[in-house]
Amino acid sequence: RMYTNHMSGEIPAAISALTNMKFMSLGDNDFTGPAPDLSALSSMTDVYLDCNHLSGVVTNATDWGSYTGKCFLDASTLLEKCSKPTDNTFSCPLPANAKKTCHATCK
To answer: Is the whole-model pTM more than 0.85?
Structure first.
């Protein structure tokens, strides 16, 4: 888990090579750029990308509805709020499964 570690920059595309990863907790950092394409990570059950500075289009390539655990692309429905007053700002429209399953919102 790398939640709340003040990491910054873009999430590297190479993260998609970690095909056996089951849990990704990168929330509450200072990551920028687009949400990563996680379509190759078929073992993934939980994804936390909330409370960053991610923006742009959320890709349809990732099956955001396939996660059996928890999935948060922004903090709008989290019980705990971000440690800073910002969150991701994704472009509309969002893939339907990202909005429903991963609690994503767009602007």
So the answer is: yes
